[in-house]
Structures are given as structure tokens and as C-alpha cells.
Specification:
mainly alpha, 12 helices, 224 residues, single chain
């Protein structure tokens, strides 16, 4: 048995052991409690999305900040309330953030949901030079809007940027269909075969997530 004869050892224990115990308690009890509260709140918002809306509305009433308004608009977008999402995004942009890429990107998503292609073209102008615009879903939506407005060549120029391996499977399928509609069968087939090949290396969650896309890809490949 080891005997600790040094008196400083016992002084250390007397002075610092309670402090160490408090730190351990904070880590194991208080920190975990906060995590639990956060997780519980997130689960509640998933099960009852209207509660999340009400909570965010209260936050906006308490403080009409830019971020609070954007958070509320995001929540409306999540539940598919496109009109309220647009309303709050536009009000956010009326402040000093007219070129906020994040807000405009989400607005373009909402406009796509309601098939307002002219607004997509209008709002995209201010973010086309942004670094995050290139090879993004936003650029893809812009390409679809160009197609709807009859600007086919410009549409293809933007849609083809989405053709990135091991990503954007749904969008690449849409792009392949676009090429088929223009009788560009070989280019479309290359994209479809790439998706088919990539699907063999997907994780199980991704295979479940994209199973309908993969099934449609295989179906089209059998017909061309």
C-alpha cells in the first residue's frame, strides 16, 4: 500500500477535490440536461411543426431582427407554406441585406414550388456571380426556369452544371430527360449510365433514399 506522507498532497485533495467534483457534475448532469432539452425541443418541432412556427413568431414579436424573420421564413418553407415563406423572405430583404445569397436561394426554391418561373429569373440576377451559385441546386432551378420561359440553350448551359458524379441524382435524372427531349440521346445515356453505376456503390441509406430515382433511371435505360 502506498503512503502519501507529503502534507501538500492532502492540502491539494481538501482544496481541489470539491472543485473537481463540481466540474464532473456539470459535465455529466447539467450539460447532458441541456442536450436532452435541446433534443426534446427538436423532436417536438418535428412532430408538431406548427409549434415551431408559433415559437418563432413569438421570437419575432419580441425582437424584429433580420435573423428571427429569416428563421420564421425557413420554418414556413419546411412545412410547405410557400406564401408565408415568400412574405417573410421579402420583408427580410427589404432591410440592409438585399444581396443575401442564403435568403435569395431559398426564395428561388419557394418560387420553384409555386411554378413562378419569372420571379426565379428576376431574383437570380443578383446572385449569379456568387461563388456558391455555380454547380448548385439553385443554378439547376434557374436552368429549369429558363427552359419554361423558352430560353432552351441558356437552360442547357445551366442545367449541365449539375452533372457532378456521386451527387444530385434526382437533378441529373431531370437533366437527362431534358437532353432526351432535345434528341441528345447519347449524352443523356451517359448520364443515366453514370447514375446506374454510382448506385452500386451507394450506402444503404442512400439506396433507400434514391430508390425511385434509380428505378426510373434503369427503366429509361431499357428504352433507349
Amino acid at each position: 500500500m502506498i503512503k502519501y506522507r507529503n502534507p501538500y498532497y492532502w492540502i491539494f485533495l481538501i482544496l481541489f477535490l470539491p472543485v473537481i467534483g463540481s466540474i464532473i457534475y456539470l459535465i455529466t448532469q447539467v450539460y447532458n440536461k441541456r442536450d436532452a432539452e435541446k433534443i426534446t425541443s427538436e423532436i417536438t418541432h418535428i412532430i408538431n411543426p406548427t409549434k415551431k412556427i408559433k415559437d418563432l413568431e413569438k421570437q419575432l414579436e419580441f425582437s424584429e431582427s433580420y435573423q428571427n424573420r429569416v428563421n420564421l421564413a425557413d420554418a414556413y418553407l419546411e412545412i410547405g407554406d410557400n406564401q408565408n415563406a415568400i412574405k417573410h423572405y421579402k420583408e427580410a430583404l427589404d432591410g440592409n441585406f438585399q444581396n443575401d445569397f442564403y435568403v435569395i436561394k431559398n426564395m428561388i426554391e419557394v418560387f420553384y414550388n409555386i411554378e413562378d418561373y419569372k420571379s426565379i429569373l428576376e431574383y437570380t440576377v443578383s446572385i449569379k456571380t456568387h461563388s456558391e451559385f455555380k454547380k448548385s441546386r439553385t443554378q439547376f432551378i434557374y436552368g429549369l426556369a429558363l427552359e419554361k420561359e423558352g430560353k432552351i440553350d441558356e437552360a442547357e448551359e445551366n442545367l449541365k452544371c449539375i452533372d457532378v458524379r456521386f451527387s444530385f441524382y434526382n437533378e441529373r435524372l431531370v437533366y437527362a430527360k431534358f437532353l432526351l427531349s432535345r434528341n441528345k440521346t447519347e449524352e443523356a445515356e451517359d448520364i443515366l449510365e453514370s447514375i446506374s453505376s454510382e448506385s452500386q456503390h451507394m450506402t444503404k441509406p442512400n439506396k433507400r433514399l434514391y430508390r425511385l430515382t434509380i428505378a426510373e433511371v434503369e427503366k429509361i435505360l431499357q428504352t433507349i
